[in-house]
Write a structure and sequence with these properties.
Blueprint (H helix, E strand, L loop, with lengths): L2 H9 L3 H21 L4 H18 L9 H19 L25 H9 L3 H12 L4 H8 L3 H29 L2
Helix pairs in contact: 1-2, 2-3, 2-4, 3-4, 6-8, 7-8
């Protein structure tokens, strides 16, 4: 069955088609959820909530643009909505933080380790870091999505980079001590 036919069947609330669509995209969308979640369990919750929204709003998809892109936008917005409702962005009076470059020599760090240290960032820093660095949104877009100002987005990104840099440096030190 083609993707277009699958989408049409989902629009008719065909549960078999919904199951097929879930199987087709769940792993890709789960990876996206992991980026915006504190842990595996929260990512699973976000994925389930995203698919509920997808199935409820699939009528709104008119075939213009990438279907996968549409799914990803819903998934990211679902994860962000959790944080908007928790008011993780209430602290906006942060001192301007100098922007820091994080030097990651890819061969030295596993994807699991990098994902772990990103997931350990405080929510407001992790969300801005992921949106800006991993997904390529502008600070203006991030500010609109998270309902914060542009300066807060920039400050949160700089602070996230500082924390990641410190964690990576600490990891390098612990690795070199263990190898002695």
């Amino acid at each position: 069955m083609s993707l277009n036919q699958l989408i049409e069947n989902c629009k008719r609330n065909d549960t078999k088609a919904q199951g097929e669509l879930y199987k087709l995209f769940a792993s890709k969308l789960f990876s996206l959820c992991l980026k915006y979640s504190r842990n595996h369990a929260e990512a699973e919750d976000n994925l389930q909530d995203a698919f509920l929204t997808i199935f409820n709003k699939i009528e709104q998809y008119k075939g213009k643009g990438s279907f996968e892109g549409w799914l990803k936008r819903i998934t990211v917005n679902t994860a962000l909505q959790r944080y908007r409702s928790q008011k993780v962005f209430d602290i906006v009076n942060e001192n301007t933080v100098e922007d820091v470059e994080v030097d990651i020599e890819e061969s030295n760090y596993s994807i699991d380790y990098l994902l772990q240290i990103i997931q350990e960032l405080p929510d407001r820093y992790r969300l801005v870091f992921n949106l800006y660095v991993l997904d390529g949104y502008s600070h203006k877009d991030i500010a609109e999505m998270l309902k914060i100002n542009v300066g807060t987005s920039k400050s949160n990104l700089a602070r996230a980079r500082q924390i990641l840099k410190k964690n990576i440096e600490d990891y390098k030190i612990s690795e070199s001590v263990q190898s002695l």
